Amino acid sequence: REWQNKEATMATRTVTIVHCWSAPRSRSTALMYSFDSRDDAVALDEPLYRRWLLLHGHKFYRPYKTMLYEHEGEKKSLNERIDAAITSQQSNGVENGVVFVKHMAKHKDLFEFEHDRELGALAYAKDGVRITHQHVLLIRNPFDILSSWNAKHTYRIKEEEEDKDPSKTTQSSSSSINETSLEEVGIIQLLGIFSSTTSIPGRDPPIVLDSDLLVKDPSHVLTSLCAALNIPYGSGTIGGDMLTWPSGPKACDGPWAQYWYEEIHSSNGWSSFSTTVMPRYRSVVGGQVCVDILRASLPPYDYLSSRALCTVEMSKYDPGLEIFEDPRNADVLCWIGTPDKGRVVPRDIAGVSPFDSAVQGGDAVWEGLRVYDGKILSLERHLKRLFNSARAMGFTNVHSKEAVIEAIFRTLAANGMRDHTHIRLTLSRGKKWGSSMNPKFNVYGTTLIVLPEWKPVENAATYDNTNGVSLITGANRRNPPSCVDSKIHHNNMINNILPKIQANLAGAADAIMLDLDGFVSETNATNIFMVDFNGVLHTPLADHCLPGITRETILMLAEEVGINAKERRVSLAEFHAAEEVFTTGTVGELTPVTMIDGRVIGTGKVGPVTKKLQSVYKGLPDREGWSTPLPDFHGY
Fold it and tell me: What sections of 277-423 are H helices per DSSP?
């Protein structure tokens, strides 16, 4: 390596060797043709295949085995073929060239990534040439690989074997199915390549290329790929546009092309390839084998696809709409699990089953928690309400209180969260064995979700507690107990979401919801209080609203500091004419309301009663008996 580096300093030419690793499907061949169409490039088709087949060919039938074993060109080592490619470029006057090497992921054990060389060989070097190795991982959804593989490989191999020996019809069909394996799908090997290269000191990670994005917009993706490889691209450059190639067999094809490349040979560029070769409505045959392959392949595929080139700019969502005031929330860890099995997982791969009751029918209960300086405020009261709601809903095989607390502590510890944190705690009826609203289908126990976020009391996702907020009155009425009892803290939130949409459209923070008789119930997200001209604090009865824990706390604190407080039915007109109005909730504590339906409340500023209660409330986490201390976090 030292000698090679010294030679590189004296080099007058640069050659970029692009090692492209993928599963055995047509898209890797199309990318090889795309590079082969460049004036400055030479493409090599699976130079490690013959060596790999010599090691593993006894496991399956290939009609070209003997021919490949005896092929003089395929007997050459990777170094010899790269040298021949560079020599041809020199003779053609190419100043700085590209050698595109198409590899199958299953061939990776024949390559030494630390030294960029074939196993057992010396690192390639050539006088006067600076050699740069780049690795590209061409990924594809494992489901599409399996469906494409089964549609082509099963019947192609069956046909070949029947031509050779008609008596093998039944055997060949089953043996070709067995070839559908994790190794053939290749995504785990690609993840291994990613791991091997990124663990090498000073080495850039490989470029990940999503083949779906490549087929969707080849010009954009190829432009980005060439930029990442630091080679030219575009019409009018030596690279050409890379979007077209001549139809039919190519000089770069491996000897096996006649058996596998029929469809790609019928194309003459990315536009025709995307319409003639893309899979149609294909089934994944193979039963349990294929399902198990998907189970093993999808997680590494998801990991690699999240790092793929052009993923963000070609996605349908606008990343500018994401609001991460605290960037740590982009990588927050959460907890998901049943009573028997739970784990901490990153937010971007967290998920529940589509058979979970929360998905099937909003059949879940929840709580919001806040963490203040190493303590969770009112944890015991929140858990009591959570389990009361679960009992009212008739949940069975429920997490124990101890298990829920343990999950909360472990999740907070994993994130290093001890302050300025809000937790959304959800307990669903659990996963069903079939799609149905029937609770009899729930046999796996409840599903617990602990979702923490770095969320100060005042931020974009909460409220302005310093200057106050505006409210409107929503058109939707609050559910009465005869419909859905609000004393169950449930996940059936459509009744709340519809008025929140109205508030958003009106530019207000939230919407006031009235009961069926027209009295104020609460807002779509919080309980609500008003102060009349006599300084008396009023809040609606909890007949048509959630009896909130923060609401209950404010009533207790009001009595403590000598503020007269009443629970009664309060009309909307009384709120319009109030001296002060504020809302209460775990996430936002006490939020002043300075305007309702365009009417200024009091002086239009935060009132003295509101300020007093805000101040007293902020001292609660330090009071004895109000909070649950967090354990020490090792490594924090």
Answer: 288-305, 357-361, 379-392, 401-415
CA-CA-CA-CA torsion sign (54, 64, 192, 135): positive
> How many CA atoms lie less than 13 Å away from 590 in the CB half-sphere?
26
| Joined tokens for residue 214 | 């490549």
Q: Which amino acid is at 107?
A: H
- Using alpha carbons, list the distances in angstroms from residue 362 to 2, 32, 33, 478, 495: 64, 49, 51, 18, 12
pLDDT digits (tens, 9 = 90+) for 514-532: 999 999 999 999 999 999 9
Q: 3-state class of 64 per DSSP?
A: coil
Q: How far is CA 131 from CA 6, 9, 92, 199, 368, in A?
A: 12, 11, 18, 21, 58
C-beta of residue 393 within 8 angstroms of C-beta of residue 432: no
Residue in the structure block whose two tokens are 């690192």 = 123
Residue type, 259: Y
Token duo for residue 506: 């009106």
| C-alpha to C-alpha distance for 581 and 599, rounded to whole angstroms | 12
**Interior angle at CA 306, CA 305 and CA 309, nearest 5:** 75
Is the pTM higher than 0.90?
no
d(C-alpha 560, C-alpha 576), whole Å: 27
Lowest-confidence pick of 106-110, 477-481, 603-607: 477-481
